[in-house]
Write a structure and sequence with these properties.
5-stranded mixed β-barrel; Spore Coat Polysaccharide Biosynthesis Protein SpsA, Chain A; alpha/beta; 5-stranded mixed sheet; 358 residues; single chain
């Protein structure tokens, strides 16, 4: 495809707590080599390059991670890596990205993806995005990808799909549906009901829209962000205006600010081997599977152990004896040993670490 009228916006901010001690404030999940020799950010950029010219890829990050992003993507034009002055949640971040694209191409289609997700079916992803770009152009609506659920997960938001959309001029064979509503993270019972119904998709935070369509909806529903986009896109000094205006924006997610209010939102459900890889437990299924249901990476010796996740990052040997249900992560300057049932509390542990280990 490589359409010069399409821009890719990669969201690559976030904190480095879920994968501590491998991750740090300046090295969050998307900058780690968790699966192979390629970071999640590199994977995201490469996926979009099958659809979008490299000069049209823009990465949004923050000051703590900017140098690492530039080192990982050295061929990206310097102006295409933009740092938020401070963290203000996804709606202000996307408004910044919209302004950056609108300055260059006021009629462009934007493909917005997080940098920290794993997608194994990359050919399927390309086909889905091609369909979504066509749907966004033909419908003048906001399009979101929904992930086909594999179980009733209570950790994700959900998208409730309505009837198949009627879009004049849309010719792609992949079906597009109207979105009835966005659902917040449900409890376990409700998540199971969503899954059983077949009418709900996981909300992956992947959006496709034209610049005019998204600015129109921001103007209607979030004038603060619309004014910011207008001022930034027309500014003679982009950096100065960004530094002045961005920190004053209301901290709010894009779902609350826009997607739940927009006049028309469409959904394409995707079955593309998607995984949010939210922490060390979820990473286990992608590591080498050793005897005793142990998942390992690096030089590891196990004796009478079962159901552990062991990640050695420094090259030193890690040995476990007679233990089970543990997460063990070894780096050059820190070691994590945690009960799997306590994995969600890693962030609280990181908060107690000295600054040089956060």
């Amino acid at each position: 495809m490589s359409d010069p009228a399409v821009y890719g916006l990669i969201l690559a901010g976030g904190s480095g707590t879920r994968f501590w001690p491998l991750s740090r404030d300046d090295r969050p999940k998307q900058l780690l080599r968790l699966f192979d020799d390629e970071t999640l950010l590199e994977k995201a950029a490469r996926r979009l390059e099958a659809l979008i010219p490299r000069e049209n890829l823009i990465v949004l990050t923050n000051a703590a991670q900017e140098a690492s992003v530039r080192a990982i993507l050295p061929d990206l034009p310097a102006v295409n890596v933009i740092s938020e002055p401070e963290r203000r949640d996804t709606a202000p971040a996307l408004a910044l990205g919209i302004a950056a694209v609108a300055r260059r191409s006021p009629e462009a289609v934007m493909v917005v993806i997080p940098a920290d997700q794993l997608i194994r079916d990359e050919a399927g992803f390309v086909r889905i995005i091609e369909a979504a770009v066509e749907a966004a152009r033909a419908s003048d609506a906001l399009v979101t990808l929904g992930i086909k659920p594999t179980w009733g997960c209570p950790s994700y938001g959900y998208i409730e799909r309505g009837p198949r959309a009627s879009i004049s001029g849309y010719r792609h064979e992949i079906p597009v549906h109207e979105v009835l509503r966005f659902r917040e993270k449900p409890d376990a019972d409700l998540a199971e009901q969503y899954f059983e119904s077949g009418a709900y998709s996981w909300n992956a935070g992947i959006f496709i829209w034209t610049v005019p369509a998204v600015i129109r909806e921001l103007t209607r529903h979030c004038p603060e962000l619309a004014d910011f986009v207008s001022e930034l896109r027309h500014s003679r000094d982009f950096a100065a205006t960004l530094a002045k205006q961005f920190p004053a924006l209301t901290r709010i997610s894009i779902d609350y600010a826009l997607m739940e209010k927009a006049a028309r939102v469409l959904n394409i459900e995707a079955d593309i081997g998607w995984d949010d890889v939210g922490g060390w437990i979820s990473i286990g299924k992608y590591l080498e599977q050793a005897t005793g249901d142990n998942a390992v990476r690096g030089p590891v010796t196990l004796l009478d152990c079962y159901n552990n996740v062991v990640f050695g990052a420094s090259g030193r040997r890690v040995a476990l004896l007679g233990v089970h249900d543990l997460i063990v992560v070894e780096t050059a300057d820190a070691i994590l040993i945690a009960d799997k049932d306590e994995a969600d509390r890693v962030k609280k542990l990181v908060d107690q670490m000295p600054p040089d280990l956060r």
